[in-house]
Design goal:
Elements: E1 2-7, H1 14-28, E2 32-37, H2 64-73, E3 76-82, H3 90-98, H4 100-104, E4 113-120, H5 127-140, E5 144-145, E6 156-159, H6 170-191
Parallel strand pairs: 1-2, 1-3, 3-4, 4-5, 4-6
Helix pairs in contact: 1-6
This protein binds flavin mononucleotide.
Length: about 190
């Protein structure tokens, strides 16, 4: 079974480190993984043109449809975001809005396992709110959302400002690993 990790930062820093940590845990538990960084991808905004009502398509010609195809091919999706003014990054929000074709063409993400990771420069900088925004997208896509098991957080939540900082946050990394373990557990239940 395959787990797709998505890093929603504009740079390759803490979010990427944490999502990759989660994917490493998945691989240690015999799952296939793939990582996509949104940094550098062309992601235009949804214009509500309606093209995706008729087919699995989008009128915007950029990098998004390839990401949607990878989402559709995965059994689980782990989405990470930096905390920007208490919210997900604009880049990630633009991607979420562009996932309308997946929903309109038969709820293509239905019952896939979903988990969230957030990192912020402050200890209480809004990471929980970011995790809940990611969960909201997953719930509206009818995914099965999981948290972080025994560390009793809503997902992976870490502190770090400069690239490399978040991997030093031992408690935060533990919540990321436990989130990945919960994804593993949910996929094993689906496999039975
Ligand atoms: C525009 C902007 C807004 C930010 N807002 C917050 C915030 O509200 N709370 C917080 O804890 N950190 C905030 N930060 C810090 C980032 O969340 C932090 O540096 C994070 O590690 C960035 O992740 P990345 O390395 O994956 O890009 C902000 C950073 C930027 C650039």
């Amino acid at each position: 079974m395959k787990v797709l990790g998505i890093g929603g930062s504009h740079r390759r820093g803490n979010t990427e480190d944490l999502v990759k940590k989660a994917l490493e845990t998945c691989r240690q538990n015999r799952l296939e993984t793939e990582y996509i960084s949104l940094a550098g991808l062309r992601i235009e905004y949804c214009t509500d043109c309606g093209a995706c009502r008729k087919a699995f398509t989008c009128s915007q010609k950029d990098d998004v449809m390839a990401v949607l195809q990878k989402m559709s091919d995965a059994d689980a999706i782990i989405v990470g975001s930096p905390t920007y003014f208490g919210c997900v990054s604009g880049r990630l929000k633009a991607l979420f809005d562009r996932t309308l074709p997946l929903r309109r063409q038969g709820n293509m993400l239905k019952d896939k396992v979903g988990a969230a990771i957030a990192v912020g420069g402050s200890r209480n900088g809004g990471q929980e709110h970011v995790v809940q925004q990611i969960h909201a997208w997953m719930l509206i896509q009818e995914m099965t959302v999981v948290g972080d098991k025994k560390t009793a957080h809503f997902g992976g939540i870490a502190v770090g400002r400069n690239p490399g900082d978040a991997l030093q946050d031992i408690v935060g990394v533990e919540t990321v690993v436990n989130t990945a373990l919960k994804v593993v557990e949910a996929l094993e239940k689906q496999r039975k």
